[in-house]
Amino acid sequence: MDVSYDATKRELTTDKGVIRYHEAGSPDAPPLILLHGSGPGVTGWRNYRGNLDFFAQTHHCYVVEFPGFGVSDAVEGHPVLTAGSSVIRFMDALGIDSAAMVGNSMGGVVGINLAIKFPDRVAKLVTIGGVGPNLYSPSPSEGLRLLQEFTDAPDRDKLIRWLNSMVYDRALVTDELIEERWTAAINPDAQQTAQLMYGSAAFAMQQKFLANSDTPPYWAMMHKVKCPTLLTWGLDDRVSPPDMSLAPLRLIPNAELHIFPNCGHWVMIEAKEAFESAVGAFLSR
């Protein structure tokens, strides 16, 4: 099948703007929704373009582009919350009652929140790093500090330092990748979203809110996740270090953990074949 960018791109008009996405796989196959992460120049296509062909062999795949990252129309609100609501709007519009989901980093947090609030909509969940609290490692992590530095005052050198923190093998940070990410990162919607998530002022406000709020953080409610969950992690993740996996592994009732050696934050890219094998087996059970 043709899983190129142009062959798979779609758009859906909703009451809160256009949601753009990529679609591949047999319409008779079970649905699989792929949720992207955050960071400069990120899109769902860039996160999962290398995996779409594999998963489309067994599932009807939807790579959803979250609002505010320069592809789908931006909406007001915190990016994690607007991403979750966009997934529900997307599923409702296409008549998808329930689906398995794969979420990279922030996408994993979105998936966890959906599984807590809408348990009947998430059949299975795969997360790629990013979920849970730092138990032993510093918070913010090295990767998040570099991301914050870039967000506060973007330049190409800071982008390169952040990209290098995302991977175990720095050979993956090619000139082509740097240019692609830089071009997308300076999109006005993407810059505004980054400020809401990672800017120094926004981070300080979030910490103040958490210290004074009676609302528990999402990870304290992970015991409410009912669906089978596979946590995947790079052993050398410098953005969300592997000790973060211990809380979701213990709290989610039906969770398992797969850690990939010689791998950073982008497990689906850096450990592509092993990741696809592990996730494919999990989804087929």
UniProtKB/TrEMBL annotation:
Q: GO cellular-component terms in the record?
A: membrane
Question: Domain AB hydrolase-1: where?
Answer: 30-271
Kindly list the biological process annotations in GO that this record carries. Answer: acylglycerol catabolic process
Q: Which UniProt keywords apply?
A: Hydrolase
Is Iron-sulfur among the key words of this record? no
* InterPro entries noted in UniProt: AB_hydrolase_1, AB_hydrolase_fold, AB_hydrolase_sf
Q: Which Pfam families match?
A: Abhydrolase_1
Any idea which GO molecular function terms this record carries?
monoacylglycerol lipase activity
Q: What is this protein called?
A: Alpha/beta fold hydrolase
Q: Which organism is it from?
A: Gordonia asplenii
